[in-house]
């Protein structure tokens, strides 16, 4: 299945992102069961990122008020920065997007985003007892947040499917 571009097919893009969130969450659960916490953290992060992209599509007008630049794609096509953010949801923009979305969907969305970003960091660096490279002192703390984030993915995925 090819991911549709949001400026071409909003409904197709939304469905694909919701499916992506579901599948990534399922993979994260499987990794948790196998004790592969760093892999689970990465998949939980990807699930949340897909969900944020779907929510951002719904609130594209709000994003256009903040992301006003124009981006140039590899093929030379010009695209509004808001559409670029919705399509690619770069990790450098995730927290800012979540702040905007939290105005409508509540602060819980921002909390889950912070957890997702912490897990993304943990995925690459593992646990760190000194707290320099990772906010997680051990794998169990990360496992707890993976479980927490997966609950958030499910909650917001259900919310989007009702709309």
Automatic annotation (TrEMBL):
What is an example of a Pfam family matching this protein? PaREP1
Name the InterPro entries for this protein: PaREP1 (IPR010268)
The protein's name in its UniProt record = PaREP1
Supply the source organism for this entry.
Answer: Pyrobaculum aerophilum
- In the record, what lineage is assigned to the organism producing the protein? Archaea, Thermoproteota, Thermoprotei, Thermoproteales, Thermoproteaceae
